[in-house]
Amino acid sequence: MKIGIVGAGRMGSALARLWAKAGHEVILSDIMPPEKLEAIAHAIGPQARVASVEEAARVAEVLLLAVPWASVRDVVAACGSLAGKIVLDVINPVKADFSDLEFGFTTSASEEIAKLADGARVCKALNTIPSPVFHLPECKISGMKVSGFYCGDDDEAKRTVAQLVADAGFEPVDCGPLSSARYLEAVGMLLIRIVVALKASPELALTLIRDQKPCC
Ligand SMILES: NC(=O)c1ccc[n+]([C@@H]2O[C@H](COP(=O)([O-])OP(=O)(O)OC[C@H]3O[C@@H](n4cnc5c(N)ncnc54)[C@H](OP(=O)(O)O)[C@@H]3O)[C@@H](O)[C@H]2O)c1
Predict the structure, then answer these.
(1) How far does the centroid of ligand 1 lie from the alpha carbon of residue 98, in Å?
(2) I need a labelling partner for 139 at 20 to 30 A (CA). Which of 10, 18, 162, 182 fits?
(3) Ligand 1 atom with the shortest distance to the CA of 69
(4) What is residue 146's DSSP assignment?
(5) d(CA 22, CA 25)
(6) 205: closest CA among 213, 216, 190?
(7) Tens digits of per-residue pLDDT, 5-35?
(8) pLDDT at position 185, please?
(9) H helix runs in 45-154, sequence order
(10) Residues whose CB is less than 8 angstroms from the CB of residue 1 and which lie 6 or more positions away in sequence, other chains included
(11) For residue range 161-192, what is the model confidence (pLDDT) as tens digits?
(12) Mean pLDDT calculated for residue range 101-124
């Protein structure tokens, strides 16, 4: 699959590396100096290349948005039409001082992206996994697979995103409609507070433990 990546920082570059390793083609775009972006693509290997935000968005079957919330409006404008495109958003809309989220529980970054990117099939995924976890062997913690929570309103887009979550090395967990992003983003914020409170290394994550019996 062709995966466009906007924002090749901690999250974007780590996911690009994992997806390239799983056989996907990754197209990286960022506002960082071009030589730095080229070096990231080069380190990933022949399945990675660099493009403008517009080209990455146009050619991608799935577009990863891995930029700070404050850049989202500009990024969506730079992408051009995203109608019909699967947009995978990992964004936690934290305030600049990391004190809180920009939204309460009446909307979310994902729902706001869906409003900005008319017709895009937006899914939230992987926002509850701190980026250092992407660098652990097989992305496992203490030998356990980490949950890759995701949500969205389009069933076909969700199936694709679930596959990409699995391809990156995580256990996909369907969290229902896109409005569940309100709660996934709150969990992302909670993890930031846990790291601060525990003075912990961010190599931690949440994993759903469940009985496999159907309940109803
Ligand atoms: N890091 C984590 O552990 C983690 C975990 C879960 C979710 N997230 C979410 O993932 C997103 C990315 O986080 P990150 O930690 O990967 O951030 P990061 O390391 O700062 O990377 C973001 C990249 O996006 C670039 N960027 C900013 N505005 C842009 C624009 N208009 N067009 C293209 N590129 C642009 C930035 O460039 P400049 O640096 O030059 O501005 C930077 O290279 C955030 O929304 C965050 O909440 C992060």
Answers:
(1) 14
(2) 182
(3) 45
(4) P
(5) 9
(6) 190
(7) 999 999 999 999 999 999 999 999 999 999 9
(8) 98
(9) 53-59, 72-79, 109-116
(10) 24, 25, 61, 62, 160, 164
(11) 999 999 999 999 999 999 999 999 999 999 99
(12) 97
Q: Say how far apart CA 48 and CA 189 lie, in whole Å.
A: 31
d(CA 70, ligand 1 centre) in Å? 10
User: In CATH, what number does 2-198 get?
Assistant: 3.40.50.720
Residue 61: pLDDT over 90: yes
CA distance 88 to 121: 9
Residues in the chain: 216
Nearest CA to ligand 1 atom 15: 10
Which ligand 1 atom sits nearest the alpha carbon of residue 29? 33
Nearest protein Cα to ligand 1, atom 25: 7
Strands across the sheet with 25-29, in order? Answer: 48-50, 25-29, 2-6, 62-65, 86-89, 121-125, 147-152, 171-174
Pocket of ligand 1 (CB under 6 A): 6-12, 30-32, 53, 66-69, 71, 74-75, 90-92, 94, 127, 130-131, 188
Q: Is the pTM of this model over 0.90?
A: yes
- The pLDDT tens digits for 121-150 are 999 999 999 999 999 999 999 999 999 999
Ligand 1 centroid, distance to 131 Cα (angstroms): 11
CA distance 72 to 116: 9
Are 153 and 130 in contact, with CB atoms under 8 Å apart? no
- Burial code of 26-44, b = ≥16 C-beta within 10 A, e = fewer? bbbbbeeeeeebeebbeeb
